[in-house]
Amino acid sequence: MTSGNLVPLFFPELLETPKIDAGATALSPWDTLVAWLPLPPCVVLVLASKPEPVAEGLRPKGYLPVPRGATPATSSGGREGPPTAAVLVVDHVDLEATRALLEEAWTTLPDSGSLVAICARTAAPGQVRDEVRLLLDECKFQFVEHREVTLAFGSGGGSENTSKAQDILVSLYRTRRDRFAIRGYRAGDEAAVLPMFAVSFGTPRSEEHWRWKYRGDPYGSLRITEVFDENGRLAAHYAGYPVRFVWPLQASGEITALQIGDTMTSKAVRATGFGQNSVLARTVDDFYERHCIGQTSFNYGFNTGHIRKLGERYLGYRYISPVTVWKRSLRLRRRLALRALVARAMGYRAGLVVTVSPEWDDLFSRVAPKYGLLVQRDARYLGWRYLACPDRVHTVVAVRRRGALVGWGVSAVRGQTVYLGDTLFDPATTAWALPMLLRALNHLFARADTVQGWFPAHPDWWLTH
After folding, report:
1. DSSP H or E stretch at residue 309
2. Domains observed in the chain
3. Which residues 6+ apart lie within 8 Å of 115 measured at CB?
4. Which of 262-266, 334-338, 365-369 has the lowest mean pLDDT?
């Protein structure tokens, strides 16, 4: 496996002065690398396909560099023994080879032993997923510090990369050996995820539901980051499922976002680390790098309580306008009952939905411009999100006028309350279509007395009915 924008990094390039603004100064990549190592004398494991130039650079600094598999001799300061630090120079583009080097480093180094990794990539425009960082997460190395510098090439300098006519971006990672592997989903992980879900949320989740949500999404699958400890036990889980939005300000008219859910950590690790170094924060950082950079426009969700505060302080969450609780009685008052009767005389009808057809696409295309930014609630979305949900808890009601679809609502009942979870209506018909929807819910859920839902204040015309 290779990374598309990685380029081999060679020792002479580490000595180059970064490309910076006039009058400024900056450390070379080599100076930063050495500054991040423990103070000499100490034994340093050198991981590179060409380790000798790196070793020659370390010896004058008082370090005892050793290549892979070597038995360390006595250092210049009289110290001997196994390596306590490592340097990884990615002088190739084979990520599986890099993984093997990192796994060897983790096996060789003591607990909390330091590793400094350095790689180079083409300085391409736009955001590109950092594959080396993800490998460090997967191989149980925790980030301490990250730095990037740009080196100018193509005009001499004696480097093996001088034939490249573009700048390269050098990334340095200061890490330490850790006990947690942070990685993407692998086949069979749900066997550990589902029990954690039951403990975290107090309700079971079936494997069928998991497959529907994370494998069956028509817009993308398996956007999941998980954390496992050194014994292979699941420690944290963070996931999202892709949702298509329409947005008039986007040139294509469509964007993809991730709806975040199923955020959970094992009780055993909730006190491990603090703030940005907590297990959950590190999980979220990996998720953004693995599933979001260059792939999605934004993430969104509905947070309350502790995760709301944690997200705002440490996870980069930004909260927009509050969600309003919309609540109505299902005991049809005289005014509402009269509206329903008039609506029926005007040709409005409401009925249960078991399948969707292209007319649902037509409704969405017709009314979407009146909403602005909006989830693409077309036939494909409704068919997956509600009708295909294996829990069978959703009731979909369509409202029509003289046979033409003018709106719909999705609800579920708990006790005496009907929760209206999703709707889409033509605003020109809401005054009459909404009473018909409520009348249908009154008949479908005869024991319920209230309907409520979470709705934003925009568009404001919805809350007036």
Report:
1. helix 305-314
2. 6-178 (3.40.50.150), 182-314 (3.40.630.30), 324-463 (3.40.630.30)
3. 85, 86, 87, 88, 102, 105, 109, 141, 175, 176, 177
4. 334-338
Q: How far is CA 60 from CA 64, 103, 172, 187, 290, in A?
A: 9, 28, 21, 48, 39
Q: Percent of the chain at pLDDT above 70?
A: 89
Name the pTM for this structure: 0.88
DSSP characters over 103-156:
HHHHHHSPTT-EEEEEEEEE--SS----HHHHHHHHTTEEEEEEEEEEE--SS-
CB neighbours (10 Å) of residue 20? 11
How many angstroms separate the first and last alpha carbons of the chain?
Answer: 56
User: Cβ–Cβ contacts within 10 Å for residue 330, how many?
Assistant: 21
Count Cα neighbours of 258 within 13 Å in the Cβ-side half-sphere.
25
Give dist(CA 354, CA 387) in Å, integer.
7
The DSSP bridge pattern shows strands 417-425 and 450-455 to be parallel
Cα gap 87→83, rounded to integer Å = 11
Nearest to 155 by CA among 166, 147, 145: 166
Helix (H, G, I), strand (E, B), or coil: what is residue 165?
A: coil
d(CA 215, CA 218): 8
Alpha helices in 322-422 (DSSP H): 334-345, 358-367, 379-382
Burial 377-400 (b: 16+ CB within 10 A, else e): bbbebbebbbbeeeeeebbbbbbb
pLDDT above 50 for 277: yes
Say whether 63 sits in a helix, a strand or coil. Answer: coil
Report the alpha-carbon distance of residue 201 to residue 300 in Å, rounded: 20
Q: Is 428 exposed, middle or buried (0-12, 13-18, 19+ CB in 10 A)?
A: exposed
Task: Quickly list H helices, 176-304.
Answer: 190-201, 207-214, 279-287
At 305, list the tokens.
């309580």
Q: Between vectors from CA 450 to CA 447 and to CA 456, what angle results, nearest 5°?
A: 145
Q: What is the helix (H) or strand (E) element at residue 44, kind and residue range? A: strand 43-47
Cβ–Cβ < 8 Å for 170, 119:
yes
Q: Which phi and psi angles does 147 have, rounded to 5°?
A: -140, 145
Whole-angstrom distance, CA of residue 265 vs CA of residue 94: 33
Residue of higher predicted confidence among 212 and 155: 212
